[in-house]
Write a structure and sequence with these properties.
13 helices; two-stranded antiparallel ribbon; mainly alpha; two-stranded antiparallel sheet
């Protein structure tokens, strides 16, 4: 007789769970509250959160009550620090705004770190050329530049009543469309985002015109692009052409310093004013008095020249006397 017994094998898996502990337990039994570790500090974070939230709510309520006054303080130039583009045109009088040469001088000579002169004369809305590395298939790196997308555009200003041509970036064009027009963009954009000296100049012109309707806008605004001279024009400025002057043979080898006079174009402002006054005196010699300040100045100059030449005259006379004695 054979007996068959079925043997069943069962796989038993045991799982052990360990709780990490960062301290030494006290002798007391755990109550499941997590307070059995030594040297635990009671957390006061929840109380601080409640206090901070209460302070924030109080500040927000005060801010909503005085929102108009706070916004006026934040956006006035006396409260906040001036931007670098504002600083270039700070303190200009209405007469300075009408001077095309003065504004051109500011545009050409103002340098701001990390800002290109082209962006300061146009409307780039803070966009600047960037540089980086180009990596090829062999992982060699070379320097490259990313330039902003620039367009030549002409806008019409309803405040100034004149067309204005500028170099603008695609970002500035999008913002002009978003603000609802060219004038709104110039007047409402913050200086840090406008980031243009020429834009700040247009803003000052518009504000002056809105505050004083009798203010006269110059017929021609300063050039948005820098004025460049050719090599020939530079040479003419450095070495101006002077036409030859004919002198009689008797005077050609003598001292001609009195004949080396400046032309009106070479005179400064004070010299040109004196020149015009002398011309008016030459036309009316009968009305000229001997006590005229220009005549007094001429007499004093002649007297000073005679005093300087007196020592030389004495030396020449002494040499003549010596030569006559030897003869």
């Amino acid at each position: 007789v054979f007996e068959y017994r079925q043997i069943f094998v069962y796989d038993v898996f045991c799982f052990f769970f360990f709780q990490a502990e960062d301290g030494i337990r006290d002798f007391c039994l755990s109550r499941g509250l997590g307070d059995v570790y030594k040297r635990q500090v009671v957390s006061t974070q929840s109380t601080w959160v409640i206090i901070v939230k209460a302070q924030q709510n109080m500040f927000l309520s005060l801010f909503k009550q005085n929102c108009a006054q706070i916004s006026k303080m934040l956006f006035t130039s006396s409260f906040r620090a001036l931007h670098s583009t504002e600083r270039a045109l700070h303190g200009l009088s209405p007469k300075d705004l009408q001077s095309k040469e003065y504004i051109n001088n500011i545009l050409n000579k103002t340098n701001i770190p990390k800002k290109t002169k082209r962006s300061l004369r146009g409307l780039f809305h803070g966009k600047q050329p960037k540089s980086g590395l180009r990596t090829c298939f062999s992982e060699k790196k070379s320097i490259r530049r990313w330039k902003p997308n620039i367009f030549d555009k002409e806008f019409f200003s309803d405040v100034l009543q004149m067309p204005i041509s500028l170099e603008t970036s695609s970002s500035a064009l999008r913002c002009i469309r978003k603000y609802g027009g060219f004038d709104n963009y110039i007047l409402m954009t913050e200086p840090s985002k406008l980031d243009s000296i020429y834009g700040e100049y247009l803003r000052k012109l518009m504000l002056q015109k809105l505050n004083d309707p009798s203010f006269q806008i110059p017929a021609e605004l300063p050039k948005q692009r820098p004025f460049k001279l050719s090599n020939k024009e530079k040479a003419q400025r450095i070495y101006p052409y002077r036409p030859p002057i004919w002198h009689p043979p008797a005077l050609r080898h003598t001292d001609l310093w009195r004949l080396r006079c400046k032309r009106p174009s070479e005179m400064n402002r004070h010299e040109y004013a004196q020149f015009q006054e002398i011309e008016s005196m030459a036309k009316n010699l009968q009305d000229v008095q001997t006590s005229h300040p220009l005549l007094k100045q001429e007499r004093e100059d002649n007297k000073r020249d005679e005093e300087l030449l007196e020592a030389d005259r004495i030396k020449v006379l002494q040499r003549l006397e010596l030569s006559l004695i030897h003869i």
